[in-house]
Amino acid sequence: MEPFLFAKDQLSEFVAELMSRVRLYAPVPRDQELRFDEVKTPDEVVLDYRNTTKPPKMVLFPQTERMIAFAQEREHFNKVLQVPFDEQPKAILGLRPCDARSFLLFDKVFGAGKYIDPYYQARRKSTLILALACTHPRPTCFCHAFGSGPYDSEGADILMRDAGDAYLLEAVSEKGAALLEELGLAQADQAHLQKAAELEEAAYQKLVEIEPVEGIERDLEDLFESELWAEISEKCLACGTCTYNCPTCHCFTIEDRVLSGGGERVRSWDSCMYPYFTLHASGHNPRPDQASRWRQRVMHKFEYLPHNVGLYGCVGCGRCVVNCPVLLDIRQVLRRVRQERASKVES
Ligand code: SF4
Ligand code: SF4
To answer: On the chain, which terminus has fewer CB atoms closer than 10 Å, C or N?
Structure first.
């Protein structure tokens, strides 16, 4: 099917149409930054951007969420009050292909296998993903090291492409095709298809050269006891910025809070970069230093996840590279892993 199209100066009308159907999330200005949030007015959406500091993962996996509320009653101590799952129809508009692809990992972690997370599942099933291809990949982007790229449609329901003065919209899933049918947009003409193809080619020219990540899990196999982790982690501040801003990081903690007449069970993001993340009630900490925490971050993303669910825990968005206050660069870490492995094999 030929792509559909709408003019960029019709963006507000397009957003208003989506808002009439779903609860819409998109990049909007909030607190002096551009971030994914629920859209309040159609004209606040910004699609002309490189990428947001914070990923859109909070739409499907909120930073803090109530899992249950419970009441304290004389007859039924801690009676559970069901918390409704978020099944309201939603859409995320304008997220980058790397962020759309991060949901494929979440699907494996929260939505497949023996343990299904009903909170994530309810949100995922009711959310449509309208990804926007990247015309200006940043020097820190390395999605292509994972066999992906700035025009990858994996994880999206609809892929939008810049075509100069218009956006082209192409269905990727059945859900996406159904929405496009309903919207009744015009079909793309030859001139816009040509312009979109030129912009796509130019985007690929901007990608920096990088070694493919594939196979890094084998390089990591013998490096658990390596001195490398102490070297890498030496300047880390344990601030957690890299994990909070990562679209694929999904570790969380759960706590029960006492409130008047009952309480609530709350799930919140947590970070393997924090000293207390693995602290046992006994006082023992199996990851007692930043070296073992950095090892966990790398091993989890690049060895355990590919072994356990068949996907890396990184999509190459470059956020941790851009935002680390001490300029720790995950691409350099992967390079050091390969060097370390090579020197082990030689010796
Ligand atoms: S952002 Fe940098 S300093 Fe902060 S925890 Fe991550 S690696 Fe360490
Ligand atoms: S590890 Fe860094 S580059 Fe990879 S997905 Fe997370 S934030 Fe992006």
So the answer is: C
Q: Identify any residues that bridge with 313 across adjacent strands, giving them in sequence order.
A: none
Which amino acid, one-letter code, is at 30?
A: R
Q: What is the pTM of this model?
A: 0.95
Report yes or no: 146 and 314 within 8 Å, Cβ to Cβ: yes
> Are both 121 and 270 inside the same structural domain?
no
- pLDDT tens for each residue of 237-267: 999 999 999 999 999 999 999 988 889 999 9
Residue numbers of the domain that contains 335: 216-346
Considering its fold, how many domains does the chain have in total?
2
Give the contacts of 186 (CB within 8 A, at least 6 positions apart): 4, 5, 6
Q: Which protein residue has the closest C-alpha to ligand 2 atom 4?
A: 314
Which residues are near ligand 1 (CB < 6 Å)? Answer: 236-242, 273, 324-326, 328
**pLDDT tens-digit readout, 82-131:** 788 999 999 999 999 999 999 999 999 998 888 899 999 999 999 999 99
Classify residue 148: in a domain, yes or no: yes
Q: Which residue's C-alpha comes closest to atom 1 of ligand 2?
A: 314
